[in-house]
Amino acid sequence: MHRVSDLFWICVFVVGFALRAQADQPDKPNFIIIYCDNLGYGDVEPFGSKLNRTPNLNRMEMEGRRFEQFYVTAGVCTPSRASIMTGCYAQRVGMHMNERDGWVLRPISPFGLNPDETTIAEVLKTVGYRTGIIGKWHLGDQKPFLPMEQGFDYFYGIPYSDDMTKEVGATMGEKFDGKHWPPLPVMLNDQVVKSGVDRNLLTQDYTQKAVDFIIEAKDEPFFLYLPQAMPGSTTKPFASAAFKGKSKSGPWGDSVEELDWSTGEVMKTLEKLGITGRTLVIFTSDNGSPMGEDMDGLERGTNKPLHGRGYTTSEGGFRVPTIMWWPGVIAPGTVCRELATTMDLLPTFAAMAGARVDGSKQIDGHDIRPLVFGKTGAKTPYEVFYYYDQDQLQAIRRGPWKLFIPLDDFKTHPHFTKGGSTSPLLFNLEEDISSRNNLAAENPKIVHEMMMWAQKGRKDLGDVNVKGAGQRAPGKIDNPVPVKM
After folding, report:
1. Cis peptide before 231 (omega within 30 of 0)
2. Beta strand pairing status for 191-195 and 185-188?
3. pLDDT of 80
4. Which of 262, 254, 259, 253 shows the shortest CA–CA distance to 301?
5. Quick one: pLDDT at residue 37?
6. Which residue of 279, 288, 360, 479 is most buried, as measured by CB atoms within 10 A?
7. Residue 453 has pLDDT above 90, yes or no
8. CA-to-CA distance for 480 and 334, rounded, in angstroms?
9. Is 423 among the domain residues?
10. What is the CATH number of the domain that holds 327?
């Protein structure tokens, strides 16, 4: 009887907290996005890891809100980052692929995020925010595309992936102009301040710069975008001496545990400054782990219990571990099981900050404050969610259902190794988190309905050799040059 009574009062507390939260939200709260690189769904303790120690994320979970169905819009770096910046599918803003670089931007690319697009930083600056990015940009390394031209007051970090080094460029051939790639550059605003970097120290370096930024900006509303370099795109992740060789799952685990430490340093700084009550911290990843050749191994992380690797349209590629922490505003120890995405952060932050989103250009994200604050009965705002591999629509999500579209051919596919398939694959993700049971034959009406939604997506966002009516062009310049000191 006591147990039933306790559960009743816990429920009353959580519901009451949610009802008060939005009303109690401070004007112009601070926003921090910690955006890991290739961190898998199962790489941290709040999402099931039994090996990697993540005490600070455990604390975030206990004091905040875990999002179990939070998605990115691509299984790889550049398009994923375009979506978090613009609130759009990468296909809408032309950042899903190009004829020179493929699906991610390489050094000395003529392409980048079009300056005509409105970024999350530009939206927040209209209402007085100080904006900073510390870490990996990867939306163009030429001056018109760099963060200082896209709404950021401060940039410290690398313009592309940490594995895009001079040594790697030498092996890439003429297509990517690899022989002219510079040593990995660290930039301060629009200038290179280091040429050639010890990648073992990137997490440590970014963390100190993030702490410094928060201290300097504490008296004004600020937005800090912290796209970490780790666990990273390489086969061997990096970590500083304090973490190297300390985890139970090798170098990948070392880097994950250092990311947890870094997150803890951010939280401690906010607490010391007394600004946790007006700061929303979001921890997430740009896509799932690529995983190793052995899908049961841990050398490149894990997305289990989800199916598939990063760099694909599998759940493991698109669904990422996400926790939101805002003491006193978000009810502690709560879970959101509704679908939300990185595209939602721009309109949600704008609504929280009292900023206006330019309505002249379509965005795909939604204001998800009801989900963030745990409003009773809040549901996902998405009628449908699209999974693209570069310019190819491969799957769609509607309610609990995920349909992989029959294709004559495909670029990459999480359920096939080559060729195509004339049969649809239909999974109920709420009952079958690992996508094991194809229910297409038993549900022909659902398959038909979802195929109609797929056609709508193609018309708007395009497909292979199909220009979508809602697509916009990426930025492009003539005669790009290497980023050098």
Report:
1. yes
2. antiparallel
3. 98
4. 253
5. 96
6. 288
7. yes
8. 48
9. yes
10. 3.40.720.10
CA distance 295 to 255: 19
The answer, yes or no, to whether the previous bond of 305 is cis (omega within 30 of 0) is: yes
Burial-class residue 334 by CB neighbours within 10 Å (0-12, 13-18, 19+): middle
Q: Given this model, what pLDDT does residue 8 score? A: 47
Alpha-carbon gap, residue 94 to 90, rounded angstroms: 6
Please say if the pLDDT value at position 9 is more than 90.
no
In a domain, 475, yes or no: no
Structure-token pair, residue 164: 């895009």
Which residues have CB under 8 Å from 97's CB, separation 6+?
Answer: 79, 103, 390, 391
For residue 365, pLDDT beyond 60: yes
CATH of the domain at 431: 3.30.1120.10
Q: How many domains does the chain have?
A: 2
CA-CA distance, 30 to 301, in Å (whole number)? 31
Render pLDDT for 210-221 as a digit per residue (tens, 0 to 9). 999 999 999 999
Element (H, E) at 340: strand 340-341
Q: Are residues 337 and 443 in the same domain?
A: no
- Residue 467 lies inside a defined structural domain of this protein: no
Asked if 140 and 230 sit in the same domain, the reply is: yes
What is the per-residue pLDDT across 179-204, written as a single tens digit (0 to 9) for each?
A: 999 999 999 999 999 998 899 999 99
Domain interval for residue 391: 385-461
- Residue keyed to tokens 């609130």: 87
Residues 261-282 have pLDDT tens digits of: 999 999 999 999 999 999 999 9
Residues 154 and 200 in one domain: yes
Over residues 354-367, the mean pLDDT reads 95
Determine the average pLDDT of the residues in 62-90. Answer: 97
Q: Which residues carry out catalysis?
A: 77, 138
Which residue reads 């797929």 in tokens?
454
The two tokens of residue 9 are: 């009062």
CA distance 215 to 272: 10
Predicted confidence at residue 10, as pLDDT, reads 44
Q: Mean pLDDT lowest for which of 54-68, 214-228, 297-311? A: 297-311
Quote the CA–CA distance of 335 and 67 in Å, as a whole number: 6
Show Cβ contacts of residue 335 under 8 Å, excluding neighbours closer than 6 positions. 65, 66, 67, 68
**Does residue 290 share a domain with residue 403?**
no
Provide the β-strand partners of residue 364. none
Residues forming a β-bridge with 31: 223, 280
Q: Can you tell me the mean pLDDT for 164-174?
A: 89
